[in-house]
Amino acid sequence: MVADRNSPQKHVWRAQVVLLTGDRLGTAEIMRRTGLSKPSVWRWQERYVEAGVDGLLRDKTRPSRIPKLADAKVAEVVRLTLDEDPPADATHWTVRAMAGKSGVSTAMVHRIWQENGLAPHRFRQFKLSNDPAFASKVEDVVGLYVDPPQHAVVLSIDEKSQIQALDRIQPGLPMMRGRLATMTHDYERHGTTTLFAALNVLDGTVIGQNRQRHRHQEFSQFLNAIERQIPPEKTIHVVLDNYAAHKHAKVKAWLARHPRWTFHFTPTSCSWLNAVEGFFAKLTRRRLKHGVFHSLVDLRRAINTFIETHNQTPKPFVWKADPKAIIVAAKRGHQVLETNH
Questions:
Q1: Burial, 39: exposed, middle or buried (Cβ in 10 Å; 0-12, 13-18, 19+)?
Q2: Average pLDDT of the chain?
Q3: Domain limits at 231?
Q4: Are residues 184 and 329 in the same domain?
Q5: Residue 65: pLDDT over 80
Q6: Sheet holding 206-211, edge to edge
């Protein structure tokens, strides 16, 4: 233990006490060589006699100096947090406000909240679909992801609109060791673009097209571009949301002229069910969020390059969630809302 450079220093001191004692040195000499007090020398001599080497490696637990809070008081803090309205000037309980209300310290309130999984300052966003055909649409879309038809292509299509070409007013500084990269908070706008994208669920490739607007005219033109790229012997199943342009009369007429196409609409308020949304999130996170674009052309070039790079190493889309569990969770959510309101 003494020779090992990785041994904790306190273990080295304790081992030195034992070794010097074995050399028949007196307490005063051991104190001088180790720098320990007389009670410490006696303690570790006694601990070694009682438990051997293991006794040198373990510290005896000591009772906390902070008295334990009564269970009734802990329950009161939890009840106040869950049931009582916060002060009139706040939307939620804070540690200081709850400490003043319950008569315990802020540290104790924080500990109680942490032990009981309470975080009044945080919340999760949600949106329950009110689509009467929610269950059948979920099963239809998930069925395409999990078990696509033979000799068919399954596409997830959507638009990412209002992508801004933001140019920073001043150039930032690069990241250095011990310092973050910098970027000015103000910016100059150079226009917006809309990205039409179709994710091939089977192989993960993306067909993309930048457009100035996202009306039914642009949507029909994007469908024509896809039609030219898909082999004629393949049927095409499309997953898309309920945006008005997708259901326009002229789009329906286009579908009638192209019988190999079938649209599968997601339930309302369920954009998370559309696989291409994951690609949009990746594009935003990796290329757009911190991007600096000096013109609209620069922005479109960056988006096209990202799509080309993505298509070099695509990965098939894999759906893992059980549709029955999704339907049950949605029903439970509606029941909770009806009960609470």
A1: exposed
A2: 92
A3: 134-333
A4: yes
A5: no
A6: 206-211, 187-200, 152-168, 235-240, 261-265
